[in-house]
Structures are given as structure tokens and as C-alpha cells.
Amino acid sequence: MGPKTVQKKKTVKKADQDAVSDDSRTAILDESLRVLREEGLRSLSIRKVARNLGFSHGAPYRHFPTREHLLAALAERGFTLFSAALLRDLPPLYATEKLELRLEKMCANYFAFAFDNPDYYQYIFGTSHFDHAAFPHLQEKGNGSFAILTEQISAMMHARLIVQSDVLGTAMFVFATMHGAAMLMLSGVTEALSAGKKSQAALAQFLEVKILAALRTAAATKSDAE
């Protein structure tokens, strides 16, 4: 009985240590995101995050050996949140009669994420500050986010709601339109048109409708040509 009891205590202790480790990793990412949002990327350092949290300078390095590992983990989490935001309240993909509504809602979710998380959005889609190829899990997360859109486009083509074309190219057109508009609005270039949340929302809604209209027009044009 004695050895078994000792083994059980060791297992419980290991589980507690893992929980503490997970909590500290989460705290480091949360604080890193706060610094990113409030002070900008240049102010983000592992030592600063440790100091802000009251951790020893070496504590974060147990989870993130370099600043690049921390930046990659932040981007990975960003794409996880972004994917969840894209899928929020969408009708199921198999509901063919709701595919157009689904695309409009997905576009709305895209802009909502960008406007609600401007620094995070610009971070994960902006200039790279490290070698993404060195972090396969991050690439998987990014590809997974884009796959949500390609699956939508593929389903709409299969249902003949939009022109039968290159799925990847069409998805890239939709993404480029939303991304370009979001970055222009966030950077202040279109401030005269989108000053304030109501104006941003109105412009975003206009673009959502125009994206779908462009895809429909392409389908109609091809049908007439045939």
C-alpha cells in the first residue's frame, strides 16, 4: 500500500506543477498582449513581461526560449482567436440555402475582429518580425484560418451560387478586399470616410454586400456567356 500511496502523491504533485506551468504561460501571453496593445511591439520584451508580472527574469524562458518564440506564440493565439471569431454564429456549411448569408456574416465577423482588436489584427497580418517557417504550428493555425474561407468559397461554387473558378484565387480576392479595407481604416487613411464606429460599420457593411455582389455578377456573366 505504501509505494502506491507515494506514487499517487507524486502524480498529484506533477499535475499541480503542470497546472501552475500552464497558468504562468497563459499569464505571460496575456501580459505580452497587453503590452502589445497599449505600448506597441517595440516595447515588448521577455524581461519586461517578467518584471510586470513579478516573475523572475528567467521564468518566461521556460516557456519561450527566445523573443521570437514569444512572438510566434502570440501570433498562434491570435489566429486561434481570429478563426473562432470568423466562425461565430455562422449557419452550418451544409445549409446550401444559407451559404450567401453565411459569407456575409463571415465578412462581418472579419471586420468586427479587426475593429475590436486593431493592434492584434495588425500584428498577425502585418509585417513579420520573425521567421514564420521556423514555427510549423503557427503556419498550421494561419492556414487553418484561411481554410475557413476556402471551404466557404468551395461550397458556394459547388452550389453554383458563384462562378466555377479557382477556389484559392477567389478566396484570395475576398480576403484581399477585406484585409485591404480593414488596414486602410485602421491606419487612418480613410478617416474622412470611416471616422467613428458607426461610419466604420457602415463602410464595412457596404463592402460585405459588394463582395457577394461581385461573386454573383461573375457567376451570372459566365452563365450568359455559356
Task: Tell me what you see in this structure.
This protein has helices at 2-39, 46-53, 67-86, 99-116, 118-125, 136-158, 167-187, 191-194, 197-225. The chain contains 9 helices and no strands. It starts with a helix and ends with a helix. Helices cover 75% and strands 0% of the residues. Residues 8-20 and 222-226 have low confidence and may be disordered. Helix 1 (2-39) packs across helix 2 (46-53), helix 3 (67-86) runs parallel beside helix 6 (136-158) and helix 6 crosses helix 7. The protein is mostly helical and 226 residues long. The chain folds into 2 domains: 1-65, Arc Repressor Mutant, subunit A (Orthogonal Bundle), CATH 1.10.10.60; 67-225, Tetracycline Repressor, domain 2, CATH 1.10.357.10.
Furnish the topology, listing elements before pairings.
Blueprint lengths: L1 H38 L6 H8 L13 H20 L12 H18 L1 H8 L10 H23 L8 H21 L3 H4 L2 H29 L1
Helix pairs in contact: 1-2, 3-5, 3-6, 4-5, 4-6, 4-7, 4-9, 6-7, 7-9
- CATH classification, class level of the largest domain: Mainly Alpha
CA-based gyration radius? 22 Å
- Judged by helices, strands and strand pairing, the structural class is mainly alpha
Amount of beta strand: under 5%
Domain tally: 2
Residue stretches low in confidence (pLDDT < 50, at least 5 long) are 8-20, 222-226
User: What CATH architecture label of the largest domain applies?
Assistant: Orthogonal Bundle
Look up the CATH topology of the largest domain: Tetracycline Repressor, domain 2
Instruction: Please give the share of residues in helix.
Output: over 70%
Distance between the termini: 81 Å
Mean pLDDT rating? 84
Outline, from the CA principal axes? elongated
The strand count comes to 0
Question: Biggest β-sheet, characterized?
Answer: none
Annotation field: number of helices: 9
Specify the CATH homologous superfamily of the largest domain: Tetracycline Repressor, domain 2
